[in-house]
């Protein structure tokens, strides 16, 4: 049976003598590998001297892989410039905020606005595409590697010039720019465009509006380079699917725009295995990536078989967790499970990173697990035509992330990551699946939308959310939402800006709390809960108060409200409610009800439902260290074992079950089929 999923990893044969290649392909076949990423850091081997190219080794390698039925995800090598480049053109190296220039010596040490870099990158990509682009082994284009990973911001003069051009395009005139950035504050008014500089090292807080635009500009600058490479590759082979590997919640790049230009969205998922909540983070990562381009498939381009080299300590995956994490991605729609890397390096900064073929070779348990997963995935039936059953959406926006975490906020402890985890955790625990959406996209079809501290929101985005609720949707909005517009200028009046009609109250002040201080919250039925981190100071308006602060200076003020708006309703949460209170609130919301069967003791079991026209699959994954028994609908067939299941399924530690059911109701329209190779 041919594998419906991509399976493989980064393959760096340039690090090994030719004799090892033959062993590699034999092992790849044994492990069921059908795709490898080649050439991702091979610029020095492809162009050892400027303008002098060497493709012979690559032809040999592609022939070998093709003969063995192994496909290639051919990468452009532009993330690892060769030593000669910066010797010949020193200004390809980036400059930090204090004006210090980086040196060559690792990878990705690039100024993305440097004309020499752009020119040499275009040349090597063009040569590569023309020279080997038509080789039968090549199944996918892989552009660059983890854009902006090590140097998200460069502050050099090329960047300054490009930033000025960017601001000119965005604002049209200096007056508009001064207005947008509020430069009357602290005497920052510009009288000539040449005075505009990147947010370099300066004494006090940098202007947050300038900083926000620099983040937009820097994300765009990398994107322009991606588009340049994309155009070259597409010209050579328009038929090949194209991707670049994302990093999930990676702050510097606004991936929504990027994903629209990709045929398959791919991501590198490396949760810290010493974090007990890694399954939750990893699930959220998958959901985000799936949501970036809802018309395209997605895949895991990299994960580690066991340890990485850059967490501290580099905790290995526990037995079964590599498999469990792989099935989590498959459950959430992934079309491929790939690793960094195929063979563990002997030298270099990542020699102790685990790999599919470890230093110990076939004697390592990692190899055994890799082979077992490859076999299992190859035998897994085609899940294509099914989609995640997500009845709710999570709103997420990069500009909001950038602005919300600027240093001049009321509370430094308010981070987007914490807010997401706080609001996502009870849904994960309750087996409720969500899609991530940006505030500009249509929310039609979702029964509920969670709005995690959307501090920055434009009038248009606000209007979109209002019309969604007006038409019958439900919004759950957490505190510090609707505070500034896209320029980071405060909406005056009680806080909430365009979202005010959904808040049910007038937020007149905010009150960040000292670390460790807990507020007491009382629900209308007398039940008590707590809040922490932050409290809005609000006066009830047209909303119904569901819970109030019951002690201290805020006593009697509303903490949680519900407001009807058009045919829908909104819930507004004014502090960081404890887990149970939040779960209680979600319990009121259609689309966010936890699944009854997920109450303890089944905790630590992830449940994901995929539905199609004539079947549905329920994935169950046990992350706990002991057996878990889960109640399920009767009559499912576990596609991993072929066994028909009753109303209870026992999962061993790290156990996985995928239950297939004939769809009872004939199915519902698919938002987007997943699990398809492009
Ligand atoms: C990724 C990167 C790989 C490798 C890996 C190690 O971020 O793309 O090249 O460095 O991390 O975990």
How would you sum up this structure in a few lines?
Helices cover 29% and strands 21% of the residues. It contains 17 helices and 28 strands.
Q: If you compute it from the alpha carbons, what radius of gyration comes out, rounded to the nearest whole angstrom? A: 26 Å
Distance between the termini: 18 Å
Top-tier CATH class of the largest domain: Alpha Beta
In terms of quaternary structure, what is this? single chain
Enumerate the distinct ligands: beta-D-galactopyranose
As for the CATH topology of the largest domain, it is: TIM Barrel
What form results from the Cα inertia axes?
Answer: globular
In what range is the share of β-strand residues? 15-25%
Poorly predicted regions are 596-602, 665-678
Question: How many strand segments?
Answer: 28
Q: Helix and strand layout, with pairings?
A:
Elements: E1 6-11, H1 18-31, E2 35-38, H2 43-46, H3 56-67, E3 71-75, H4 83-88, H5 115-132, E4 138-142, H6 157-171, H7 174-181, H8 208-236, E5 242-243, E6 245-246, H9 255-259, E7 265-268, H10 278-292, E8 298-302, H11 321-331, E9 334-339, H12 365-379, E10 386-388, E11 392-395, H13 398-404, H14 416-429, E12 434-437, E13 448-451, H15 459-470, E14 474-478, H16 500-503, E15 505-512, E16 518-523, E17 528-540, E18 544-549, E19 558-565, E20 568-573, E21 575-577, H17 579-586, E22 605-612, E23 615-622, E24 628-631, E25 636-638, E26 644-645, E27 648-651, E28 656-662
The structure holds beta-D-galactopyranose (GAL).
